[in-house]
Specification:
It is a single chain. By secondary structure, this protein is α+β, with helices and mostly antiparallel strands. It folds into two domains: about 210 residues, Ribosomal Protein S5, domain 2 (2-Layer Sandwich); about 170 residues, GHMP kinase, C-terminal domain (Alpha-Beta Plaits, 2-Layer Sandwich). Helix content is about 40%, strand content about 20%. The chain contains eleven helices and 13 strands. The chain has a six-stranded mixed sheet with strand order 5-4-6-3-1-13, sandwiched between helices. A hairpin with a 5-residue loop joins strand 7 and strand 8. The longest helix is centred in the C-terminal third of the chain and has 25 residues. The protein is globular. The two termini are about 10 Å apart.
Length: about 400
C-alpha cells in the first residue's frame, strides 16, 4: 500500500515533489456499543486496514484533495479561507472540517497542500472510515505544521468535527482508538474520564473475524441521532430521582429499582441496553484477560440481541449474519459499529475460518442476494507517519 499511495500521488499531482506518507487505521468494537455517548466503557481495537494518505505543502492557500475511493469526484479544490460544509464535496468535508477546527483553535495552518488518499477500508461498513480520515488529516497537520498536539487532543478535536461540522452526535470511541491503537491489543476505554488500558488480544486458537454485510448506512440519515435524543430524554427523567450524570452511571440494581419512572417503553428499552451493555463490557474485559473466550462470546451474543431488540439499531441482514455465524462454528457474534447495516464481529477458531467463510458467504447470498466479505481482524497501531 505504501508504493500504491506514492504512485497514486505522482499520477494525480506529478513527481516534482516527494510526498510524506501516513496511515490511519479503521476500528472494530468488540463489545460496548452505543454507550460511549452514554458515559460507559467500550472495548475496541484499531485495525491493520484503513486509510493511506500522501501530502505535500504548497506555497499558496489552495487545498487540493483526491481520493481513489471516490475517483469519480475528481480533484476537489478549496481555499483555506473558505472551508464551509458543502454536500457536493462528499468525503472531502471530513478533511475541511478538521482544517477548519484547527484554524478556529488558532493553530498555525499557514499554507495549502495537495493530498492523495486511498484505502482498503470499506466505506459505510461500520469500521469507522470517517474517523480514520479525520485522524489522518489531523495527524498530517500536527506533523507538517509542528502543532505539538497530543493524541488525546487530536481525538477530541476530530470528535468535535464529527458532532458540529458533519452533524453526527457520536461519542469519542472511534477517534480515540484510531489515535491510540496498539498492535496486538484492544483498548478498554472509560468514555467519561478517557482513562484507558491496553488488553492483549492475541489468542492461540481463535481469531476475531469481521463479516461485512455490504448493507450501507449513513449515520446522518439513520436513526443514530434519534437514539442520542432518546437517551438524553431518559436521563433527564432519571436525574429527578438519582444523582447521575450519564445513563451508564446506573448499575443494574438501580436500573431495576428506578425503571418504573420510565413510563415510555421505548425509553425503558434504551436505558436497559445502556446499563446492561456497560456491565457486559466491564465483565468482558475480565473474561478476555482470564482467557475465557466462551464467556466473552456469550457476552457478544447478548450484546447483539440487546442492540437488536432493546436499542433497535440492527437490521434483518445483521441478525441473519449473527445466527448463521453461530450455526457455522462461531462462539461469539454481534453487530459492530453504529448499526443499520455494516459488519458483524465473530470469534472463530483459526482452523475453522475457511469453512466459516465459505458457508456464511454462500448462505447469506442465497437468502439476501448480497455478497458478504470476510476479514480477519488484525489489530494495529494508531494513526502515524510511514517512515520506512
Amino acid at each position: 500500500m505504501k508504493n500504491k499511495i506514492r504512485v497514486l500521488y505522482a499520477k494525480i499531482f506529478g513527481t516534482k515533489t516527494s510526498p510524506r506518507l501516513f496511515f490511519s487505521p479503521g476500528r472494530v468494537n468488540l463489545i460496548g456499543e452505543h454507550i460511549d455517548y452514554n458515559g460507559g466503557f467500550v472495548f475496541p481495537c484499531a485495525l491493520n486496514i484503513g486509510t493511506y494518505g500522501a501530502i505535500t505543502l504548497r506555497t499558496d492557500r489552495l487545498i487540493n484533495l483526491y481520493s481513489e475511493n471516490f475517483a469519480s469526484a475528481g480533484i476537489i479544490s478549496v481555499s483555506i479561507d473558505n472551508l464551509e460544509y458543502q454536500d457536493a464535496h462528499l468525503w472531502a468535508n471530513y478533511v475541511k472540517g478538521v482544517i477548519r477546527e484547527l484554524l478556529q483553535e488558532k493553530k498555525p495552518i499557514t499554507s495549502g497542500f495537495d493530498i492523495a488518499i486511498t484505502g482498503d477500508l470499506p466505506n459505510g461498513a461500520g469500521l469507522s472510515s470517517s474517523a480514520s480520515i479525520e485522524l489522518l488529516i489531523a495527524v498530517m497537520m500536527n506533523e507538517l505544521f509542528h502543532l505539538g498536539m497530543s493524541k488525546k487532543a487530536l481525538a477530541i478535536l476530530c470528535k468535535k468535527v464529527e458532532n458540529e461540522y458533519i452533524g453526527v452526535n457520536c461519542g469519542i470511541m472511534d477517534q480515540f482508538v484510531i489515535a491510540h491503537g496498539k498492535a496486538d491489543n484492544a483498548l478498554l476505554l472509560d468514555c467519561i474520564t478517557l482513562e484507558y488500558t491496553y488488553v492483549p488480544l492475541k489468542q492461540p486458537k481463535y481469531a476475531f473475524v469481521i463479516v461485512n454485510s455490504n448493507v450501507k448506512r449513513g449515520l446522518i440519515d439513520s436513526k443514530y441521532n434519534e437514539r442520542r435524543l432518546e437517551c438524553d430524554a431518559a436521563k433527564k427523567i432519571l436525574q429527578r430521582y438519582l444523582p447521575i450524570s450519564e445513563l451508564c452511571d446506573l448499575n443494574e440494581e438501580q436500573f431495576q429499582k428506578y425503571a418504573i419512572f420510565l413510563f415510555d417503553t421505548v425509553l425503558y428499552r434504551r436505558v436497559k441496553h445502556a446499563v446492561t451493555e456497560n456491565a457486559r463490557t466491564i465483565n468482558a474485559n475480565h473474561q478476555l484477560l482470564a482467557g475465557d473466550l466462551h464467556a466473552f462470546g456469550e457476552a457478544m451474543i447478548a450484546s447483539h440481541w440487546s442492540l437488536s431488540n432493546d436499542y433497535e439499531v440492527s437490521c434483518p441482514e445483521l441478525d441473519y449474519l449473527v445466527n448463521v455465524a453461530l450455526e457455522n462454528g462461531s462462539i461469539g457474534s454481534r453487530m459492530t459499529g453504529a448499526g443499520f447495516g455494516g459488519c458483524t464481529v465473530n470469534i472463530v477458531k483459526y482452523t475453522d475460518i475457511y469453512q466459516f467463510q465459505a458457508n456464511v458467504i454462500a448462505q447469506y447470498k442465497t437468502t439476501f442476494g448480497i455478497d458478504a466479505e470476510v476479514y480477519i481482524a488484525k489489530s494495529s497501531d494508531g494513526t502515524r507517519e510511514i517512515t520506512n
